[in-house]
Specification:
- The strands form 8 sheets. Strands 2, 3, 4, 7, 13, 21 and 22 form a 7-stranded mixed sheet that branches. Strands 15-14-26-25-24 form a 5-stranded antiparallel sheet.
- It is α+β, with helices and mostly antiparallel strands.
- 30% of the residues lie in helices and 20% in strands.
- The chain is elongated and about 100 Å long.
- The N terminus and C terminus are likely disordered.
- α3 packs across α4, α12 runs parallel beside α14 and α13 packs parallel to α19.
Amino acid sequence: MLFSYDLTSSSLLSRFLAVGFGMLAVLGPQVQAQVVLKAQPVVSVEDESKKVKPAVPEKQDLSASWATQKEARAMTLSVPAPRGQIVDRHGIPFAQNRAANYLALVMPYMDRATDAEITSFARTTIDKVNAALGKTWSLSDERVLLHYKHRRWLPLVFSVEEGLNVEITPDMEAKLKPLLGGSLVIQAAYLRHYPQGATACHIIGYTGKTRPLPTGPIVDGDPVFEEMEGREGIETAFDTDLKGQSGIVNVLFSPDGKRLSEDVRRAPSPGHNVVLSIDYNFQKYAENALKKHTTGGAMVIMDVTNGDILAMASNPGFDLNEFVPGIRQKRYDELTKDPHLPLYPRSFRGEYPPASTFKIVTALGALDSGKVDAKTQFDCPNALEIGDRVFKNWNKEGEGSMNVVTAIKRSCNTWFYRAALESGADYITNMALRLGFGERTGIPLKAEGEGFVPTNSYLLQHRGHKMLPGDLANIAIGQGMVLATPLQVCQCMAGLGDGARIPQPRLVLQVQDLSDRVVTAYEPKDRRRIDLNPEQRQTVISGMVAVVNGGGGTGHAAAIKQAEIAGKTGTAQWRINKDQNLAWFTGFLPAGKPMFAFAVVYEGEPGEDISGGKKAAPIVNEVFTNIFEKAPADDPMLLAMKEVPKATMVEENSGGGGEKSSDVEPARPPPPPPPPPKKGIGGFFKRLFGR
């Protein structure tokens, strides 16, 4: 019998695969388990390998004469390990593994055969397969001869189309049953599988071949099938953790290709599992709303208390399974040439003018300067002349005199022009930097957008002058040179919601082995202290509450019945040459004791009439309505909401925006660390892997 990797046989690889997949049972998306951060000692690979060992056939007595026969072979091969899983915070899988079967040719030893006889043998075998399946698979004569000369003891996969291995389905295998055995075998391999399809695609990423299989003489350590490595997203950021440790086997072949013995030196050790902060339901609600309402957009939701990223959605997306085992060139070209850029992760890489959401920064900076306070009144005409330019308000009608609360509620451009000019550029830009703009958040995904905040020092260095009044007016309303990612805008809202510090955005909770032990835990931590003035913070929050709940507010469409939202709309000029604008809505909830921060950006189509209140605010309403209505009645989130008082809005133009409201939580110090969990991670991965 020729050496084969038939899953149905008792071959060595078959048993390796059985061991690996015994640990990687499929978990349906409906199964959830609470992940508890509890580090435990991690046993060594050697100790772990003692738990499960594949059966190994007894060594046979071999005549010493085999060593004198040039066609006999003893080789040491590598068996790639299954990659670890990527799961959400409750254990719902985003990335798993499954077995794949390919058709392969194993060449017998043909003493004194000519090249023509060798290639004819291969061609005849493959032609029989093509006749049975209606395929046109083939191998070049050069490939056949190279393999025969150097690697004929190992299978050569030929079920290949457009350079990609093609799986053999059970129906195909049934048709091939009379042909299997001898030189036609089933080659088994691990294959990545993304059970949620396109969900969180820009976060999860995909894999690709580490390298092509060797074609030259067999050397120790050659893999028996193709190894995979991460190419995007978490798959590449945590590739070292996910890839596991390959198994090693020594195999002895007789001159005629018969496998005489095999000795397992090391069983393959599956990779570690990466547990994300993402909540599958939050992510799905956000993606569904974006698909329903936008052709291009993003939404981020963060936990204010610990920085956990609960959703980070970009629309459009793509099905990750299209990249398994690799993507066909035609489909890849379609994705890369699509004008809506489905491969582009807008939520963390997209850099946009933040529009009127930046007015929250301007308000805080102006108040911090001391030159503007809660009682300061500025006229809000329909336009303001600054230097030799006219800067307009969005409302063509003048709105009269107003304070900061009403200016936030009405999103009055001309008020913020005046406030920024009165305060000076440094107070506005310093507040922006303080709140996390202009620098990456540090999530473990490559090419995160950095955004940009122009400062006096930058302009002096690059333009030879400090910020001009017209530049400052543009920046004050989130236009001009200032840029931000949706993740940065959401991070800013988490900082404002807390008041004392900005939490470090956290995308990965922990890395675990298959025995439920935590290999690496990423504990919550502060990004920086911001220590906002409590009264100034409350003034701004009053304006944000009025945006959603006050008369004449611009964000009424975001309001939900389960919690009071503090928010800010925004509409920005974006791709001016294409007449495309952006709509934003950002904020946090509940306003009285913020738990969730969020940011939504909506990319308008050319010529589309949009605003943050009309286009982005309804997305927030839909997502959080789903979150609350579909959560179990005993969900801790809902129970916590019941104890939150509503924030009291300051009357517009009352001049009392700075008065302290007992219903708006003041800035607070960082929360104490959580008490040690009463129990370990328990049955999480037992349920996850069916162990």
